[in-house]
UniProtKB/TrEMBL annotation:
Keywords: FAD, Flavoprotein, Metal-binding, Oxidoreductase, Zinc. This is D-2-hydroxyglutarate dehydrogenase. It catalyses: (R)-2-hydroxyglutarate + A = 2-oxoglutarate + AH2. Transmembrane segments: none annotated. It comes from Ventosimonas gracilis. SUPFAM superfamilies: FAD-binding/transporter-associated domain-like (SSF56176), FAD-linked oxidases, C-terminal domain (SSF55103). It holds the Pfam family FAD-oxidase_C. The keyword Heme does not apply. Its cofactor is FAD. Homodimer. PANTHER family: D-2-HYDROXYGLUTARATE DEHYDROGENASE, MITOCHONDRIAL. It is an enzyme of class 1 (oxidoreductase). The lineage of its organism: Bacteria, Pseudomonadati, Pseudomonadota, Gammaproteobacteria, Pseudomonadales.
Length: 459
């Protein structure tokens, strides 16, 4: 194809892939609901090459889809309609580090775990963490405003981005905020690109802030007797300790984890729900305070059992109970919903949604887990063996309207941390007003006047 030959010449010596296996691999993400069909895959190495790709796309009228680690669950990185995939695997270097500012400048293809390890090697800490940290990339994390397991203490990716370089839909390079902590000169355009899922432009460089490394992290796993005990339990521990995590999973989730055979049970007691709390045991007083709070929870009937980590190995094993859930469930072709409400409304919301799903699908296995400390719940419905994937997803889509109506009634979000992409764009109106959606479309038109930047995603 002459147009591709021209692009190949423009970005040489960077790669342009057109073989079937590359198209299949780079044209999809973890959502698993769409058949990839990209035109080709470009792997630029420089900002100038990204700009050349965008200008070529404008000239040829070709849509572009950004690709990072492709660990997303919303279809935002899917290329199913002849788009050119722009993959950032080759832009994977840490460019600069300022220990005084605790700031790292990195390319978008830097893997999350790579940044975490770099921080650790310099006695610092990058706190945004989740199950896919070994393959997700910083550019993708920023584009979806990734959250994860430490949000209750450290916030979302947004809190750790002090500067961005982006190539907009016109091919222009924008240098946004330049690593400044304080900057009151009008609109903070950097924030618009965080969570925009590549619909405004492509992130080509990021200034990421690091933190003090936590010390003597300690975890408690508690067997929670009833859903209504979750909030008083959270309030009790949070009033006395600076929690770094407060995670939640159901008995059904624990059963799937223990069935793997490689993760030990935390205790013999079984309860409908479990909470995992983490904190820094900086001194003996804090450790004693945690044990005292656990004893109070037992006396109040909020928990029936519990265990506290006594070593780094036990800490890692307790975290496996929570972190292994997503990967374990992936073998059951789950239909996932990523929902959030204000923290205090979580128990009532979860109960309403669970009742709704059970009424509609009494024969489907329903698995709950999530970041309950920040109001984020993951609803997973597992595919029965006797149903095709197409029929299963179709049935789940039928009840989604009722699920989203419940989210709207609770003034929550249909996507807490996974983005909108293709999967949830039809439900955007349940979390955003018509005026907000119109404003978002107007913003996209400014940065992407030719409509080539990840079209069809979000809207």
């Amino acid at each position: 194809m002459p147009a591709l030959d021209k692009l190949k010449a423009l970005i040489a010596p960077a790669k342009l892939l057109t073989d079937d296996s590359s198209l299949a691999a780079y044209g999809k993400d973890w959502s698993g609901q769409f058949t990839p069909a990209p035109l080709a895959v470009a792997l630029p190495k420089t900002i100038e090459q990204v700009q050349a790709i965008v200008r070529w796309a404008i000239e040829q009228g070709v849509a572009l889809v950004p690709s990072g680690g492709r660990t997303g669950l919303s279809g935002a990185a899917v290329a199913a309609n002849g788009e050119l995939v722009v993959a950032f695997d080759a832009m994977n270097q840490i460019i600069d580090f300022n220990p005084y500012e605790r700031r790292v400048v990195c390319q978008p293809g830097v893997v999350t775990a790579q940044l975490q390890q770099f921080a650790q090697d310099n006695a610092l800490y990058y706190p945004v963490d989740f199950a896919s940290s070994g393959s997700s990339q910083i550019g993708g994390n920023i584009s979806t405003n990734a959250g994860g397991i430490k949000v209750i203490r450290y916030g979302l990716t947004r809190q750790w981005v002090s500067g961005l370089k982006v190539v907009s839909g016109t091919g222009e390079l924008l240098d946004l905020n330049q690593g400044l902590i304080k900057n009151a000169t009008g609109y903070d355009l950097r924030q618009l690109f965080i969570g925009a899922e590549g619909t405004l432009g492509f992130i080509v460089e990021a200034s990421m802030q690091l933190s003090r490394a936590p010390q003597n992290l300690t975890a408690l796993v508690l067997a929670v007797t009833d859903l209504d005990c979750i909030m008083p339990l959270l309030h009790s521990f949070q009033s006395k300790l600076d929690l770094t995590a407060f995670e939640f999973f159901s008995e059904q989730a624990l059963e799937k984890i223990l069935a793997r055979g490689d993760v030990p049970a935390p205790f013999e007691t079984r309860c409908p729900f479990y909470a995992l709390l983490e904190f820094e045991a900086l001194n003996e007083d804090i450790s004693n305070q945690a044990l005292s709070l656990f004893e109070q929870a037992l006396e109040n009937g909020w928990v029936a059992d519990g265990v506290i980590s006594q070593s780094t190995q036990q800490l890692a094993n307790l975290w496996k109970l929570r972190e292994y859930i997503s990967e374990t469930l992936s073998h059951f072709s789950p239909y996932k919903n990523d929902l959030s409400v204000t923290v205090s409304r979580v128990p009532d919301f979860l109960r309403d949604i669970d009742q709704l799903v059970q009424q509609n699908y009494p024969d489907f296995a329903v698995i709950w887990y999530g970041h309950i400390g920040d109001g984020n719940l993951h609803l997973n419905i597992l595919k029965p063996d006797n149903l095709s994937k197409e029929a299963f997803f179709s049935k789940c889509h039928e009840v989604n309207k009722q699920v989203f109506e419940t989210v709207q009634r609770y003034q929550g979000s249909i996507s807490a941390e996974h983005g909108v992409g293709l999967v949830k764009r039809s439900g955007l109106n349940y979390s955003r007003s018509p005026a907000e959606i119109n404003a978002m479309k107007a913003i996209k038109a400014v940065f992407d006047p030719h409509g080539i930047m990840n079209p069809g995603k979000i809207f």
